[in-house]
Specification:
This protein is an all-alpha fold and 142 residues long. It has 4 helices and no strands.
């Protein structure tokens, strides 16, 4: 027996075969196998831990989606306010155009009045000169 044990210790090839057999026949090693007993017990009581994690992730994603939707509603409200501001600006531009047209009309009106008064003044001056000459009488030339 001594010889077989000694031969077995030094036979590396057979040792490798035995290790390979053990690895192939044993179930895969999981992290939970090395966890403390309290963690292993909790995991055994909740076999659907993956399902619970998926539900948690779904809740978090749903909450994030609702936040994004809320931001979308805020953006829509901001767009409505911008549209109202733009509409107000367009209305102000129209009022400015109307005011400019009124100013032009008034300018034309005042210009026409000035021309009329200027023509009347020239006519009055000519009439006054003619009357002055008539009153002064004929001038004698030597």
């Amino acid at each position: 027996m001594h010889d077989s044990t000694a031969a077995r210790i030094f036979n590396v090839t057979e040792l490798e075969k035995e290790i390979a057999e053990i690895i192939q026949t044993s179930p895969p090693i999981r992290a939970i196998d090395y966890a403390p007993p309290s963690v292993r017990l909790a995991a055994a009581e909740q076999p659907d831990i993956g399902k619970l994690s998926a539900e948690g992730i779904t809740r978090e994603f749903e909450a994030a989606a609702k936040e994004v939707e809320a931001m979308g509603q805020e953006l829509q409200e901001a767009a409505r306010r911008c549209e109202a501001t733009v509409a107000g600006a367009h209305q102000a531009v129209e009022e400015v155009k109307e005011t400019a047209a009124l100013i032009r009309d008034k300018g034309k009106h005042y210009s026409a009045q000035i021309e009329d008064v200027s023509a009347m003044t020239a006519e009055v001056r000519a009439t006054c000169s003619a009357m002055k000459a008539k009153i002064a009488g004929p001038t004698e030339t030597a």
